[in-house]
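Friendly challenge for the regulars: who can give me the structure tokens for this chain first? No prize, just bragging rights.
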Amino acid sequence: MKMKRLFAMMLVGLGVLLVALGLLFIVGAAGKASRLVVATAGLAVGSVAIAAGVILHRRADRETPDRIANEILELARQRDGELSWSDVAAALGPRTNLAEPVVDELVRRGNCKRTDREGKRFLVFDGLQPRLMIRRCKFCKTEAPIGDPREQCSNCGGPLETVRQARGASRSDLYGMDG
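First reply, four minutes later:
Bragging rights claimed.
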């Protein structure tokens, strides 16, 4: 990775040097065609070297582990904290092979965990999943409407407590207005 960046910077430096020499030859051409040809060649080759160096540097920058981790986290934010491995592969494209060590590091740090469901690999980011306030009985786990002023469960008479709970769409805990 660092070698790619170093090579790209050297290419840009060479290109700047060639463009500067091409400009010097234009200034000192004094109407001589041979100097103009050398100036044009220096400007052309220098411009191509600068462009190639910038492209290589951008490509190397896109392949850094920090950049890939940020893209995975942003995708997880957009998808409510759950990603299938195919989502990651679709977002990263040819850089997918670089994602495995990045995901290993995210798992090691505790940012996410791996799960398998229905033959698919998922990454679950608990901190990015939507939270839902619910009122639940401590004993029978019956849920009550959040706006209900009662302090006791209508089922068993146990105390109702208000808690925050994460729910994910891939686990069939879909949000709905019906129940």
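Confidence is low (pLDDT under 50) at residues 174-179. The helical segments are 2-27, 33-62, 65-78, 85-92, 99-109. Your move, everyone else.
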